[in-house]
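Design a sequence for this backbone.
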């Protein structure tokens, strides 16, 4: 089966120390991407030297350098504009893809072209606390397509989690939803994943095929509290209640998917009449449970946090590596 064209977008700012491993993991895939667009956001470290070294020997790598720092969300959106592939994968420079991610995902997407994206299980690592746990496990036992209605049922069961770090997006589905909305900042990936998936469904591979490194000082690990965070949550609710998102909003409400943001989202919904349509028992249950999970990971002693994570996120069984056709 001929597999669709894949473009990888790598936003980078001063991650020269991680770029070699990131790019090599992309190039070592059994089905490598057709092109790798690295959007360098005016780095001041040795990133450009590392990139130039790769580009000399790897014709699939294209470097786009911003003269001024514009932020990671702007870099991802520029990647969408420049990517020629039907599908896009957005790789953080300090994360890693594991062997088989592209091949397994693209094979499913070729079979189910209506899907907005394909995602897998992702292992998250908090190096500072010496913690690791799987995210996205348990949505299905077998690889295949999950419809929007199936995603709602998974949300009600507490089994719905779409990790952007292991998601390959159909570019047009992403464009239709507005790409990565800058005003959503740290949560722009949630809107992209769930907004497109609740509209078109997704493909799912029940294997751990990416590694995510959590850093409290990174863009995604900072600023998720206080007035700025409340403003972002309200912007997310504003977008979901727009006329163009009516089909998605109903599924978000019924699934309780907003509970991923914990009690701050529950408070935002309850305090603003325009957004009370999202109030539901699934939202209440998941919001409280999510906040308790985060508190435990942040405040429990490491041994207790590891025990809780093993209970909450049991390591999924990994099927044997399957060989498939190459492009």
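Sequence:
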């Amino acid at each position: 089966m001929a597999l669709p064209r894949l473009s990888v977008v790598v936003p980078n700012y001063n991650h020269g120390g991680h770029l070699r491993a990131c790019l090599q993991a992309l190039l070592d895939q059994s089905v490598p991407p057709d092109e790798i667009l690295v959007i360098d956001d005016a780095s001041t470290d040795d990133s450009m030297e590392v990139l130039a070294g790769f580009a000399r020997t790897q014709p699939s790598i294209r470097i786009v350098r911003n003269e001024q720092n514009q932020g990671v969300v702007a870099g991802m959106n520029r990647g969408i504009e420049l990517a020629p592939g039907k599908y896009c994968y957005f790789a953080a420079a300090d994360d890693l893809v594991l062997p088989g991610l592209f091949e397994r995902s693209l094979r499913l997407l070729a079979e189910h072209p209506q899907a907005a994206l394909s995602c897998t299980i992702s292992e998250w690592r908090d190096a500072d606390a010496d913690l690791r746990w799987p995210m996205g496990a348990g949505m299905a036992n077998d690889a295949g397509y999950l419809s929007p209605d199936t995603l709602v049922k998974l949300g009600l069961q507490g089994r719905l989690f779409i990790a952007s770090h292991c998601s390959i997006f159909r570019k047009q589905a992403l464009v239709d939803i507005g790409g990565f909305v800058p005003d959503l900042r740290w949560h722009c990936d949630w809107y992209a994943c769930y907004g497109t998936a609740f509209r078109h469904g997704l493909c799912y591979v029940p294997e751990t095929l990416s590694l995510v490194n959590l850093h409290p000082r990174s863009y995604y690990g900072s600023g998720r509290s206080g007035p700025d965070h409340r403003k972002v949550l309200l912007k997310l609710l504003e977008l979901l209640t727009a006329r163009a998102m009516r089909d998605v909003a109903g599924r978000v409400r019924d699934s309780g998917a907003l509970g991923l943001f914990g009690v701050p989202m529950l408070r935002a919904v309850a305090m603003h009449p325009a957004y009370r349509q999202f109030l539901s028992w699934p939202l209440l249950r998941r919001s409280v449970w999510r906040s308790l999970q985060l508190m435990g990971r942040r405040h429990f002693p490491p041994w207790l946090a590891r025990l809780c994570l093993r209970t909450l996120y049991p390591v999924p069984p990994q099927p044997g590596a399957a060989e498939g056709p190459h492009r």
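The first strand starts at residue 6 and ends at 12.
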